[in-house]
Amino acid sequence: MFDNQIAWYYQVWPWVGLGFAVVLLILLFATDLLRNDPTTSRWKDPTWLAWLITVSYLLHNVEEYGIDLTGTLYAFPASFSDFIGVTPGAIFFAAVNISLFWFAFPIASLLSRKYPIMTAGMAGLILMNTVSHTVTFITNGGAYNSGFLTSLIIFLPVALWTFYCCVSMRKLKSSALPVVILIGVIGHGVLIGSVGLYAQNMIGDSVAAAIQVLNAALMVSLWYAAGKIGGGKLAVSQSLGRP
């Protein structure tokens, strides 16, 4: 069982993230600062959608590490530890989320102005997270797990809409979608693999946390590589225009 008696700073960061989310929501819906093309509907702008995905994950973190539907505070680490049979330190959970959703996602959102595959990559990652929560829900016989609600009602529709917009607005070819989903699988594979090594006492808390930071950098690097190397293969040439 996860020890919930931990330092306060390991429990306050999701609420700080909620503050960031509120600021971003104001910028998203009250200004054009986070849009790449003001002449297009914000709901069809890959850069705007990238920032929306960032907000989505900050809100998801509140359900996982703030308060969940059962009223439990900092619930996800305990349920995760019970499910996998090992108990990572609190630094592990902070490293997973802060490195990816406070830093990697904003960086990817900025890069999405030039590389829309960044947005699709972020969508692929939250889609895989939805799959993870859903598998846990099914495996536990339909029992609620912290984060399941926001993954289902926020992640799933946002991810699918993002995929649709990136292709329909001729920003990406449909062949890019399997690529970004595969990258999302890789990201979750690294996470699961590090937990496996931790369970076998092959690595400690600090190394497990460091792997999560590197994994966040890996995700951005792979998205960037897919957009840069793919070029004309995955992105629709701007000369083609819109349908």
Task: Characterize the structure shown.
This protein is an all-alpha fold and 243 residues long. It has one domain (9-236). It has helices at 9-30, 46-66, 76-84, 90-111, 117-139, 148-168, 176-199, 205-230. Residues 237-243 have low confidence and may be disordered.
Question: What's a quick, concise take on this entry?
Answer:
With 243 residues, this protein is mainly α. Helix content is 69%, strand content 0%.
Could you name the ranges where pLDDT drops below 50 across 5 or more consecutive residues?
237-243
Which band does the percent of strand residues land in? under 5%
**What oligomeric state do the depicted chains represent?**
single chain
Shape: globular
Describe the sheet with the most strands: none
The secondary-structure element order is: HHHHHHHH
Helix content: 55-70%
Continuous helix count? 8
How many β-strands, per DSSP? 0
| Class by SSE composition | mainly alpha
| Total number of domains | 1
Overall pLDDT, averaged? 90
Nearest-angstrom radius of gyration? 18 Å
First-to-last CA distance: 55 Å
